[in-house]
């Protein structure tokens, strides 16, 4: 990662992630699993955004789950084929496809400005071709 951050969640083990997948009946993309083992969510110290020409910031990367949930902390959620793993300061969400032909791609959805309540990947804008590409693209706001 090319930015400073504060830790959001406790360090996860492989067993915790596997148990989460079984309980949620979902398969997490391998790059995202590897990230969760290193960093279970974070808050950037300064404003960051995908340096890919996409016009949205990333204000929080949600933890998969937390042993002790603190107020104001968002954890990942699911709708259809997406894992909502991060948010922007305007209420938009970043999702990671966990199934289908777009498995592993990262999407953005402008939640506050849409009438769609449970968006699928086809309702969203592609931000990155993989989770690692998304993380590698994050840079401080100019």
Textual characterization of the structure:
The structure is a single chain. The strands form 3 sheets. Strands 4, 5, 6, 7, 8 and 9 form a 6-stranded antiparallel β-sheet that branches. Strands 1-2 form a two-stranded antiparallel sheet. The chain starts with a strand and ends with a strand. With 142 residues, the protein is an alpha+beta fold. It is globular. It has helices spanning 14-24, 30-38, 131-137, and strands at residues 5-7, 42-44, 48-50, 60-61, 77-79, 82-87, 93-97, 106-109, 125-128, 138-140. Helices cover 19% and strands 25% of the residues. It contains 3 helices and 10 strands. It has one domain (5-140): SMI1/KNR4-like, CATH 3.40.1580.
The structure class reads alpha+beta
What spatial form do the alpha-carbon principal axes imply?
globular
CATH superfamily: SMI1/KNR4-like
- Please tell me the CATH architecture by its name: 3-Layer(aba) Sandwich
Mind telling me the CATH class?
Alpha Beta
Number of strands: 10
